[in-house]
Specification:
By secondary structure, the chain is an alpha+beta fold. It has one domain. Helix content is 16%, strand content 24%. The chain is built from 4 helices and 9 strands; from the N terminus they run H-E-H-H-E-E-E-E-E-E-E-E-H. A 9-stranded mixed β-barrel has the order 1-2-3-4-5-6-7-8-9. The radius of gyration is 19 Å and the shape is globular.
Length: 289
């Protein structure tokens, strides 16, 4: 039993690092156990969206792998196509070239990466929503909105009590998840702004960089009772000459209140075992030398 567990864990790590969709035996994408997808409700006519309400447990609407953005942010993947080339500043281009991601046009073998994520550093924001985004739970309270993520069981707080974003200066403590404030644009659209993000994180799985000037804009639009559309825009004048959209209206589907969110942890000991048993050998690294 223990050996089967170890092997399955190694395979899970490989899948997460390479970010390739997992296929079931019937040819369909793997599903989150107990989740409901749009394909399960063909022909339905969803009820109208409730006002000022984005609370609930949300899963990518099409498949469990719909938001696994291994090759970079879903709306701007690192695939070499001209339309997906980011507007780097000279500093942004230099910083990007120093990154050695596992995926995208500059991808390297796992043993050669300098990606902080496989070492179990926090993904940080916005990367947690731009790579391996799975189930999330949104909780609305009078003065804040909390978002709980399946990956690494992390959470963020978006303040809605009227406070302003902190000023970005040397006195501001950088955070993995930043400082966030939000408000309703209309009855069905909630917008959040986040600043103060730790520069050690990457924007996405393709190694896109950010500076201490990063400003992330999230928009959550409640399309109907069962669907929420998530958009993320990146604005970092030090790294990019203009803002760019990383995620464009990704559809999420509301799950039952009883839906049980799985664990998806990064375990350093298992990562180390995977590197020793697989990735180092695959990259031709001989530790004995």
């Amino acid at each position: 039993m223990a050996r089967r567990f170890v092997i399955s864990t190694f395979l899970l790590i490989a899948v997460l690092m390479l970010a390739h969709p997992v296929w079931a035996q019937n040819g369909e994408f793997a599903r989150q156990p107990g989740a409901v997808y749009d394909s399960d409700k063909k022909g339905e006519k969803p009820a109208p969206a409730p006002r000022h309400d984005i609370s609930g447990t949300w899963e990518p609407a099409k498949t469990a792998s719909d938001a696994t953005q291994g090759g970079g942010a879903k709306a701007m993947p690192s695939d070499g196509k001209p339309e997906h080339r980011l507007p780097y500043t000279p500093l942004g281009q230099k910083t990007f070239q120093s990154h050695k991601p596992l995926n995208g046009v500059t991808g390297v073998p796992a043993a050669l990466t300098n990606d902080p994520l496989p070492g179990c550093d926090p993904a940080g924001f916005p990367r947690i929503a731009l790579h391996d985004f799975r189930t999330s739970q949104i909780i609305q309270m009078p003065n804040e909105v909390a978002i709980l993520y399946e990956r690494d069981k992390k959470w963020r707080v978006i303040w809605t009590d009227g406070r302003k974003l902190p000023e970005i200066n040397d006195a501001l403590e950088p955070r993995w998840w930043g400082y966030s404030v939000g408000k309703w644009l209309d009855d069905y659209t909630f917008v959040a702004d986040t600043v103060g993000l730790d520069e050690r994180t990457w924007v996405d799985n393709a190694g896109r960089p950010h500076s201490d000037a990063l400003h992330v804009i999230e928009e959550y639009h409640r399309a109907d009772r069962d669907h929420l559309e998530m958009t993320i825009t990146i604005d970092d004048p030090k790294m990019y000459s203009k803002p760019w959209i990383a995620l464009n209206k990704l559809p999420l589907r509301l799950q039952a209140p009883s839906f049980d969110i799985r664990e998806m942890e990064c375990v350093p000991s298992e990562t180390s075992s995977y590197n020793e048993g697989f990735s180092d050998a695959a990259a031709g690294i001989d530790k004995a030398k």
